[in-house]
From TrEMBL:
Keywords: Signal. CDD domains: M23_peptidase (cd12797). Pfam families: Peptidase_M23. Coiled coil: none annotated. Residues 1-33 form the signal peptide. PANTHER family: L-ALA--D-GLU ENDOPEPTIDASE (PTHR21666:SF289), PEPTIDASE-RELATED (PTHR21666). InterPro entries: Cell_wall_metabolism_enzyme (IPR050570), Dup_hybrid_motif (IPR011055), M23ase_b-sheet_dom (IPR016047). It comes from Streptomyces coeruleofuscus. Gene3D superfamilies: Glucose Permease (Domain IIA) (2.70.70.10). Residues 72-169 form the M23ase beta-sheet core domain. The keyword Isomerase does not apply. This is M23 family metallopeptidase.
Length: 192
């Protein structure tokens, strides 16, 4: 008698457990555009200069998150000395210059990069520009803060977004700027 009564109860319990496992193990739905594949974002090569130095050392590269709030690195960390000038990589308008969570941040909407426009961010930076100001490629927009960096050495975190989608900022730079090195003269064969 007891076994007959247990069958419907046990069946329901197993069904509830299977459904709970299916919900918990299912991949989460995309929360917003940051979950879209990287290939869906077009980035024109409008960069004309590095944000710091002429060919800074990349301390940590771009590591796109699998989900909107997942682990990853939503920018590039560039080695830079405290007080070094930080430059706008391309022409644009300063959309923010101030402090966020105790860090100095400068954000620039890039001219002619579509809708919504691409927006670069630089931190930790002491701003030398104000919101609404137009900037030219290579123009100094601030200086590297000595503190506030998440790197083990002083660095500038350089980010890029289109709307809510994070993009690799190195895509802004032309290939020749990414691999600059010393000039080399090559021999002209057949010439005395």
């Amino acid at each position: 008698m007891r076994a007959k009564r247990c069958v419907p109860v046990c069946t329901r319990l197993v069904l509830v457990l299977v459904m709970a496992a299916a919900v918990l193990l299912a991949p989460p739905p995309p929360l917003f555009a940051a979950d879209e594949p990287q290939a869906d974002v077009t980035v024109p090569t409008v960069g004309r200069t590095w944000p710091v130095g002429s060919l800074p050392r990349v301390l940590r590269g771009w590591e796109p998150p699998a989900t909107a709030y997942g682990p990853g690195h939503r920018g590039v960390d560039l080695a830079a000395a405290p007080g070094a000038p930080v430059r706008a990589v391309a022409a644009g308008r300063v959309s923010f210059a101030g402090r966020v969570a105790g860090k100095g941040v400068v954000s620039v909407e890039l001219t002619g990069t579509g809708e919504p426009p691409l927006r670069t961010t630089y931190e930790p930076v002491t701003a030398a520009v104000e919101e609404g100001e137009d900037v030219a490629p290579g123009e100094v927009i601030g200086t590297v803060d000595a503190t506030g960096s998440h790197c083990t050495v002083t660095c500038v975190h350089w980010g890029l977004r289109r709307g809510d989608t994070y993009v690799n900022p190195l895509m802004l730079l032309p290939p020749w700027l990414l691999h600059q090195g010393p000039s080399r003269l090559l021999p002209v064969y057949g010439t005395p």
